[in-house]
Amino acid sequence: MAFIDKIKEQAKKDKKRIVLPESMDRRTFEAAEEILKEGLADLIIIGSEEEVAKNSEGLDISGATIVNPATNAKTAEYIDLLVELRKAKGMTKESATELLMNEYMFYACMMVKAGDADGVVSGACHSTANTLKPALQIIKTKPGTKLVSAFFLMEVPDCEFGEKGTFVFGDCGLNQNPNPEELAAIAISSAESFKALVGVEPKVAMLSHSSKGSAKHADIDKVVEATRIVKEMDPELNVDGELQTDAALVPEVGASKAPGSTVAGQANVLIFPDLDAGNIGYKLVQRLGKAEAYGPLCQGIAKPVNDLSRGCSSKDIVGVVAITAVQAQMND
Q1: Does position 1 have pLDDT exceeding 70, yes or no?
Q2: Section 242-269 average pLDDT
């Protein structure tokens, strides 16, 4: 069974309330029809009746709950709660009302904060910043989190590497140029996400253009230092670096370039040194390797809030909603 099929089966066992705030996008409704048909989640779609009717024309979304901020009985409660949460930042009742009436992602996050929903999926037509800003302001970070980061769950067809072609790639969506401490935090969070979602022990490769000192550069030093910090923070985690991608994935190359490593040639979690490398890497694998790329999925927020690539398909949204539902189950 493919990874995403296992996730869908898990999602069905304990259905969670997932909010889709992008009622202005047809893909939301195409995905909603499939999610409801498969029974993956209890869906809440935010939008006006006119907006929903226009963009869902010809699709069966009758099982979804439609929430219009202008008419929902809970809106006044959300406005008061937002003022309370953000009063130190100058939030007034007027500004909170304006925000919640016009910015559906803020409204979605208020629903989660108030306990009326379990998770949010957005990003088909919003930037990562516009998706994560409300989440960080309202839902906030998970206790003990050093850094909020993003990962992609990659499912590569007919692939003998990783966990039968399944990988976590981090950070491919959020942190531009992490320092060694931040890169270490990304590695630890990504390993936890892999274990939680895939159910297999993570083998974490800290990627570079060098393997074990084969080149010298400050960029390599950053990866070496990050690897040292990871080992210090989590001595039980199976991590190694710095490794080139072929040394991380291919057993023969790993044995040659990093003899004795328990990660080289076996990695299933790939940590990229910066956002340029991560974004380029996941898109190459997605487009040339015909991989399914689910994400950017967020780690470190108190409740599941997941981003989408603006180039996503409705099928991608279905997969991310299923993953979000499973993450919500883990919060119980």
Answers
A1: no
A2: 95
Question: Which CATH number is correct for 3-140+301-331, 3.40.1570.10, 3.40.50.300, 3.40.630.30, 3.40.50.10950?
Answer: 3.40.50.10950
CATH 3.40.50.10750 fits 149-288, yes or no: yes
> What are the sequence ranges of the domains in the chain?
3-140+301-331, 149-288
Are 34 and 229 within 8 A, CB to CB?
no
Strand partners, 298: 150
Chain segment 109-144, per-residue pLDDT in tens:
999 999 999 999 998 887 777 888 889 888 988 887
